[in-house]
Amino acid sequence: MYFTENQHGAYSPHNDLSNTESAEIIISHVTDGIELAHKNRIPERIIDFIRTHHGTRRTDYFYISEQKAHPDEVIDPAPFTYHGPAPFSRETAVLMMADSIEAASHSLKEPDEKKISDLVDNIINKQMEAGQFLNTDLTLRDIETCRKVLKKKLMSIYHVRIAYPEK
Questions:
Q1: Within this chain, do residues 46 and 64 fall inside the same structural domain, yes or no?
Q2: Would you state the pLDDT for residue 108?
Q3: Domain region containing 103
Q4: pLDDT band at residue 165, thresholds of 50, 70 and 90?
Q5: Of 111, 133, 115, which Cα lies nearest the Cα of 124?
Q6: Same domain, 51 and 118
Q7: Could you tell me the CA-to-CA distances from 95 to 8, 45, 49, 102, 108 in Å, in that order?
């Protein structure tokens, strides 16, 4: 219930927590997932996907909220940052893209081709800027292929028609 895609209605349990507490809860789903996978004897190669699916990115929503709440202070990003590591294979990088985009797509109001395209591009661009794919052998061509596939899949999920150019 701490993830927006699982919340139905206006109430969010984060309203009752500090930004640091909220970030800690969100970040802990990775370590909780790893622990659960070990208990269930999931192979280490699969656990790598759990471990890297957020890489070393920040929980920006809570970090930015903390900055706004304390504009005269320098906010330490460490409590708002996933422990990583960043993806180190093509497959774990693709999972990072797909997971982030799928989760963020739930926040789209009246999805259309442009909103979906912008969402996919913004998320992948931020991941690239944060250096999340540097330990993989993904090429720019691979990343462009991922963009196209993810846009097409989201458009299919949300039943969005492609806007054909006028003659």
A1: yes
A2: 92
A3: 88-167
A4: low
A5: 133
A6: no
A7: 26, 13, 7, 10, 20
Same domain, 42 and 103: no
Nearest residue to 83 (alpha-carbon basis) of 124, 49, 54: 54
Query: Of the candidates 85, 108, 140, which is a domain's last residue?
Result: 85
- 54 shares its domain with 36: yes
Distance of CA 65 to the CA centre of its chain: 18
Specify whether 102 is located in the same domain as 30. no
Torsion of CA 153, 28, 92, 80, to 10 degrees: 90
Give me the chain's average pLDDT, please: 92
Write out pLDDT tens, residues 55-77.
999 999 899 999 999 999 999 99
Instruction: Give the DSSP per-residue string, 120-162.
Output: HHHHHHHHHHTTTTTTS---HHHHHHHHHHHHHHHHHHTTPPP
Q: Are residues 97 and 51 in the same domain?
A: no
pTM exceeding 0.90: no
User: CB burial class (10 A; 0-12, 13-18, 19+) of residue 94?
Assistant: buried
Are residues 117 and 72 part of one domain? Answer: no
